[in-house]
């Protein structure tokens, strides 16, 4: 079967009432992002990021997500295992229940309990599971060994914790197949180093792992959104600058967070689905998998002249065919001789062929996670990217690590993690750090300022 025939088959092209039809299909040859085109399956995070966190740790431990927790059975099993006076048993069971459950959900008193946090009981579970799979595949890289130690229950743990561990249900094993392509290299590298830092302090890890994973999901997907829109000109070595405000500072329309912030991300996100479809089709035509425009361009350059001519011809044939089926017009398609011009033409047609509603629904994934943690509505400015004090402490902890660094270097480290501040926000950060006694001055003039480690 030829490459074009494979592509046609994947899109289910068929004759329907005398008219050719096709179904836009993605995530077969390319799996870059865990976004949904349908509203019911898109994660809305009404329970926060906890369901994603639970599924992420089930991937880490290679266990099934289909399980039920019977709180009464667990409490009875533990109680029956402990010798005590019978009139003490109800009191013990009440203590046990308060230790193990809170607000009708499992209480995570140790990292081993993360895997028992269930997915949402709705169609949104599909979206939550896809986000967890993305975090596991694209960022952790399926290498969960560094998380192994923190998931183990040590001998010196609380006796109640050891009792509970022995009586929690054993989840069935499930092998995971990689689905999502690795994240941008500079993001994956930062994630791995920051996770290692976070793991050095269990209490800090448990207090911040949810926010940490939520941010890297938002950061990696928003950066890929910006990069893909740059076609083959994308710079995969460093983040595209996007500016944040601090939660407690005032802002205005001249601030960088208003001009070069969330609006830029969403403008690009609404064009994203056209690019995702284009990359899907190009990977079929070039018989490759998970290649971006840059990688496809590099692959094209390595081909012989005859091979290059065939690829350009196939892109032209497919662009013409698609335009006829979906748009009812093939006359406007030019026969181009330059590869990047030919796939730009394909991208334009695909973008026209996708409904505005579908493109906007796909983009909403970034808005949903942003609303939970990283956005603040500021009157006429609308939503701006936002750093709370808790988020700033997390960023500072993973940026500084275990040895003090200069204030100047700290802001560079923030930028490596996709957080850009203008000078007003930087001044507000310094003011807060002085209040929290995190700044160390090396001279009376205050020129050389260092930030102390938090961990």
UniProtKB/TrEMBL annotation:
Domain of life the protein comes from: Bacteria
NCBIfam families documented for this protein: dnd_assoc_1 (TIGR03236)
Protein name, as recorded: DNA phosphorothioation-dependent restriction protein DptG
Gene that this sequence comes from: dptG
């Amino acid at each position: 079967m030829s490459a074009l025939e494979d592509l046609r088959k994947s899109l289910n092209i068929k004759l329907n009432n005398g008219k050719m039809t096709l179904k836009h299909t993605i995530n077969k040859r390319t799996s870059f992002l865990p976004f949904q085109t349908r509203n019911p399956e898109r994660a809305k995070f009404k329970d926060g990021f906890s369901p994603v966190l639970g599924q992420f740790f089930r991937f880490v431990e290679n266990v099934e997500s289909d399980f039920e927790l019977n709180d009464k059975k667990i409490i009875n099993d533990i109680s029956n295992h402990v010798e005590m006076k019978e009139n003490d048993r109800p009191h013990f069971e009440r203590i046990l229940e308060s230790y193990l459950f809170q607000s009708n959900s499992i209480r995570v008193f140790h990292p081993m309990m993360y895997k028992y946090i269930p997915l949402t009981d709705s169609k949104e579970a599909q979206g939550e599971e896809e986000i967890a799979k993305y975090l596991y595949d694209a960022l952790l890289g399926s290498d969960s060994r560094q998380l192994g130690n923190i998931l183990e229950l040590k001998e010196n743990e609380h006796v109640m914790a050891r009792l509970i561990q022995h009586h929690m249900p054993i989840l069935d094993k499930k092998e995971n197949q990689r689905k999502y392509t690795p994240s941008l290299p500079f993001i994956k590298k930062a994630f791995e180093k920051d996770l290692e830092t976070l793991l050095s302090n269990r209490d800090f890890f448990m207090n911040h792992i949810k926010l940490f994973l939520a941010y890297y999901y938002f950061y990696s997907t928003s950066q890929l959104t910006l990069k893909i829109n740059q076609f083959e000109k994308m710079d995969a070595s460093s983040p595209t600058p996007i500016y944040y405000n601090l939660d407690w500072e005032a802002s205005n329309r001249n601030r960088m967070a208003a001009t070069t912030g969330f609006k830029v991300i969403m403008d690009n996100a609404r064009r994203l689905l056209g690019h995702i479809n284009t990359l899907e089709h190009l990977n079929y035509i070039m018989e490759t998998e998970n290649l971006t425009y840059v990688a496809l361009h590099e692959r094209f350059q390595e081909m012989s002249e005859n091979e290059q001519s065939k690829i350009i011809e196939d892109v032209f044939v497919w662009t013409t065919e698609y335009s006829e089926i979906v748009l009812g017009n093939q006359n406007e398609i030019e026969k181009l001789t330059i590869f990047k011009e030919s796939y730009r033409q394909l991208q334009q047609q695909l973008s026209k062929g996708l409904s505005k509603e579908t493109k906007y629904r796909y983009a909403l994934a970034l808005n949903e996670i942003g609303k939970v943690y990283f956005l603040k509505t500021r009157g006429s400015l609308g939503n701006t990217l936002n750093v709370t004090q808790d988020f700033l402490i997390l960023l500072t902890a993973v940026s500084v690590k275990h040895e003090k660094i200069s204030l100047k270097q700290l802001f560079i480290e923030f930028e490596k993690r996709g957080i850009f501040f203008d000078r007003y926000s930087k001044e507000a950060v310094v003011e807060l750090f002085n209040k929290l006694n995190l700044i160390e001055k090396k001279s009376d003039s205050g020129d050389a300022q260092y930030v102390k480690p938090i961990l």
